[in-house]
Amino acid sequence: MQKKSKKTSAIAQHKSLSIQFSLDGFSFCISNSKTKEVILFTEYTFSSSIASPELLLEEIIRVFDTDKDLQQDFTSVFAIHQNNLATLVPNKLFDRNSLASYLKYTVKTLKTDFITYDLHDIIAANTVYIPYVNINNYLFQNFGEFEYKHHSTVLINKLLIYSKENSENQFFVHVSSNYIDIVVCKEGNLIFYNSFPYTTKEDFIYYILFTAEQLQMDPNTFQLTFIGDIEKESDLYSITYTYVRNIHFMNPVNSFFTDDEEFSNHSNFILIA
């Protein structure tokens, strides 16, 4: 497990904690509760994907036991579950008593799975998903009441706000180690969202081009914006540039990572934007 961290000299009496976890890693951000100024960001990357939520919890417990930054009092705690065990359901088709039915065609579910949903702030839709209940239980034992959401809920809402003034279709690709989220929006309206697994660079570009084709967007003209775990020197970027002519990286409003050697400015948009 590899650790990277950035800390400012700011001091706050009241602090809030935001954490994001997946089978590939664990990140957390500590902010001033009143000013929202970021004080600390830390990222743990696992050497390989964790095989199960149970093993993920073991890694998280190990982090909490050894990282002193997590061993303090917080005024609020917000957790982000990052997985592809989710789907987006419009309000007019949504019934909170039928959550399992929305996942059965795209996610392998068990009768014992706890399924919940996030109500979106901006669009008339809900994210239906399976959270890591064991990790929620652990966090509750540590902090008491806390808020949690699926990563796609946070990503979509932030991108809709980010793009609300733009009259052109905005094609965003959020890159993780084993899957990508594609979000297309225009003037604060969601046009498309989906998550795709990939193992090769060919898988990666296939889903981008397939989405563009379905939306009748010309790869020679539309602008693609990368967010997350991707750099210009990577094979993923190179193969994308072979087929998509206009590519740039997200430039978040928050300047916490500006000119940082450890983290790219676009790398942690979901947790810090």
Any idea what the shape is? Answer: globular
Helical coverage, percent range: 10-25%
User: How large a portion of the residues is in β-strands, by DSSP E?
Assistant: 25-35%
Largest sheet: 6 strands, mixed
The helix/strand class is: alpha/beta
InterPro entries: DUF3822
Pfam families: DUF3822
How would you describe this structure in keywords?
alpha/beta; DUF3822; single chain; 24% helix; 6 helices; Nucleotidyltransferase, domain 5; six-stranded mixed sheet; five-stranded mixed sheet
What does this structure look like?
This protein has three domains: about 1-85 and about 130-145, 2-Layer Sandwich (Nucleotidyltransferase, domain 5); about 85-130, no CATH class; about 155-250, Protein of unknown function DUF3822, C-terminal domain (Nucleotidyltransferase, domain 5, 2-Layer Sandwich). By secondary structure, the protein is an alpha/beta fold. It is built from six helices and 14 strands. The strands form three sheets. Strands 1-4-3-2-5-9 form a six-stranded mixed beta sheet.
